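Hi R.,

As promised on Friday, here is the backbone we talked about, encoded as structure tokens. Could you run it through your design pipeline when you get a chance and send me back a sequence?
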């Protein structure tokens, strides 16, 4: 396995080389000093406004004490900016109240003891108020951050629950961890005892040998490894194992440094992402195993059904061929000419029957493998129908056939041999299930830019519970009395595959008239220019 190394983008590299951006640059786009000073400038403005309001009130109304106005400024700073701007506002309020409202005015001296007491009470009340309000704001901020983080994790968990592909799971997890922590993230999954890079954000495909060694240690021990842990604390990464019931299946890691290591809340969020990712990967693995098991079971069912169908449906024509050929070999010289000819015709007919079933099996194999090749040519539908009827009569069909082809119907651009097989299957299906005295109608007409081909009979029809499945493999209508039930149940499935390969559609309707009969209708697109 190739050695992985991780090269961080230049914008994410710190002086220590870990690649994590400083937290002070996350809050806003302005300079850090201005961002830090802004709350204190607003606190000064609040105290100045409180002073102006206090002076305005005392000039019109005799107030025994104007200190309450300054408490409003303190509360504003605490509620808006937190505890430190509030304490700063408390000190300014203390000085402003002393300077503008306590005798002697415009000095910081205090002559009356009760004024000194009032000033001290103002300071204490302002500090307590700012502390309580600041703590309340900080707690509200932390609660809002926790709620936001919880919502992000909830949305992340919902996205993972809809993913069935392990690669999609690790891609989403890497992007989620990078978005939550604002630092590079990698996910490595174990394969044959070695770790391989599965996802990284920002995209990369290499890890330094030392970092990769720490990741393998996290996988082997099933413990956190890297900076801030007891294992490999000098590695500027934090790796967490992705734990599954049978053991760790990989690791997830984030780059960090001594100055920007994860705080407890970020560490908790990262651990939650790791747990959700491991659970989603295990679910995806189990889903793939279930899908593979279902596919294998379905393949086994189809194989068993096909073998049972072939062994049953091939037995009758093979027995006829074997009996006729044996009679010819043992009694050929003593049989009259008409009897010998009947036996030879029987061998030929049964061989053609077997040939048709083999063709259906081969056609279904090509359809499922996507190897069906179309050799398109112009097809005269009148000739197509005539060939289908002639073939049916040559094979001993006793039903009455009627062919209806609309006048001046254009030719169809299609594969003649495949369309012959489609018509042979449809007519053979009608002969088998409609009864010996049935009337079978083959019709072709034009509807807009399509041509409609249909084969109808006046037989007993298709039961409703079978009608919706007639174009599936191995689906056969219930046998009528006297029906040998020959056929693999592939005829209509092959019809559907061939028609769809010609960009057409096929549908079945039953009953069609008088609560009896079946009609199979095919729609094929007409070329823009037909001869």
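Update: got your reply. Pasting your designed sequence below so it's all in one thread:
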């Amino acid at each position: 396995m190739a050695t992985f190394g991780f090269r961080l983008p230049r914008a994410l590299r710190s002086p220590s080389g870990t690649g994590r951006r400083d937290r002070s640059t996350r809050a806003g786009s302005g300079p850090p000093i201005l961002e830090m000073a802004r709350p204190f400038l607003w606190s000064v403005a609040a105290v100045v406004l409180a002073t102006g309001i206090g002076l305005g009130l005392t000039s019109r109304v005799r107030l025994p004490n104007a200190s309450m106005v300054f408490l409003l400024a303190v509360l504003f700073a605490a509620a808006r900016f937190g505890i430190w701007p509030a304490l700063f506002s408390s000190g300014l309020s203390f000085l402003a109240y002393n300077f503008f409202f306590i005798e002697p005015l415009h000095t910081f001296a205090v002559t009356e003891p009760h004024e000194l007491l009032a000033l001290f009470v103002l300071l204490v009340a302002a500090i307590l108020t700012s502390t309580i309000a600041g703590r309340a704001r900080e707690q509200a901020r932390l609660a809002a951050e926790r709620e936001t983080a919880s919502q992000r994790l909830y949305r992340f968990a919902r996205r993972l629950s809809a993913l069935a592909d392990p690669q999609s799971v690790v891609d989403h997890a890497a992007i989620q961890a990078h978005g939550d922590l604002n630092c590079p993230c990698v996910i490595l999954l174990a394969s044959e005892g070695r770790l391989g890079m599965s996802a990284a954000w920002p995209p990369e495909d290499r890890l330094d040998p030392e970092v990769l060694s720490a990741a393998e240690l996290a996988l082997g021990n099933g413990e956190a490894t890297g900076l801030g842990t007891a294992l490999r604390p000098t590695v500027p990464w934090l790796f967490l194992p992705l734990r599954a019931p049978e053991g760790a299946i990989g690791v997830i890691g984030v780059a960090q440094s001594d100055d920007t290591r994860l705080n407890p809340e970020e560490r908790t969020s990262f651990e939650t992402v790791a747990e959700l990712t491991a659970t989603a990967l295990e679910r995806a693995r189990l889903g793939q195993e279930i899908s593979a098991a279902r596919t294998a079971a379905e393949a086994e069912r189809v194989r068993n059904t096909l073998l049972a169908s072939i062994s049953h449906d091939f037995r009758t024509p093979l027995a006829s061929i074997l009996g006729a050929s044996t009679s010819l070999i043992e009694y050929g010289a003593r049989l009259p000419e008409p009897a010998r000819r009947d036996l030879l015709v029987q061998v030929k007919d049964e061989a053609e029957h077997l040939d048709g079933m083999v063709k259906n099996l081969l056609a279904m194999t090509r359809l499922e493998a996507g190897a069906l090749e179309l050799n398109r040519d112009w097809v005269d539908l009148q000739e197509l129908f005539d060939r289908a009827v002639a073939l049916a009569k040559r094979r001993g069909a006793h039903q009455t056939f009627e062919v209806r082809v609309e006048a001046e119907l254009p030719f169809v651009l299609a594969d003649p041999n495949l369309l012959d097989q489609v018509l042979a299957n449809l007519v053979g299906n009608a002969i088998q299930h409609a009864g010996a005295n049935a009337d079978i109608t083959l019709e072709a007409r034009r509807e807009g830019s399509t041509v409609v081909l249909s084969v109808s009979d006046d037989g007993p029809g298709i039961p409703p519970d079978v009608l919706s499945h007639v174009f599936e493999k191995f689906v056969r209508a219930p046998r009528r009395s006297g029906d040998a039930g020959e056929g693999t149940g592939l005829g209509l499935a092959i019809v559907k595959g061939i028609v769809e390969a010609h960009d057409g559609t096929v549908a079945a309707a039953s009953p069609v008239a008088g609560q009896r009969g079946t009609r199979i209708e095919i729609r094929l697109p007409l070329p823009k220019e037909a001869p």
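One thing I noticed while checking it: Residues 44 and 89 are 7 Å apart (CA to CA).

Thanks again,
M.
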